[in-house]
Amino acid sequence: MxxxxxxxxxxxxxxxxxxGLWSWQAESIVLGTGAHESGGFQYLHQVNGPALSWFQIExxxxxxxxxxxxxxLPAALKAALRGMVPHQYAGWPPAEYLTQNPAxxxxxxxxxxxxxPPAIPVDLPGQAAMWKKYYNTPLGAGTTGEWxxxxxxxxx
Length: 156
What we know:
It contains eight helices and no strands. It is an all-alpha fold.
């Protein structure tokens, strides 16, 4: 079993620092999102669905980030993202790359939160509410209570 503290220390924190979007709150919400969405970092592909990586990012959502969010990002952030992409890709990597490179999945997860204006809350209930509103969406099946339970189960 992969331990969340290893994922935090060796993947999440370094990736967020590399793209210039690290904060304790960002590290926490990204780690919690991965833990919740993947059942404790068990799944890189949604069971009976299209979502990819620990963060269960659907290919259409990924493409939306690339088409509609990345072009408007600050130049330094775009350059940092570009620096994460192997030279074999002329443009951005395909959605499947989310399962092949956990750091890339962390970066895209963080961008999904970055594109919404509120600051990431310091407290876990606030982070759960932000996950529900912007990541799972009000129409999604997940609940803030489940997110909190999974955060506490897998990340503390």
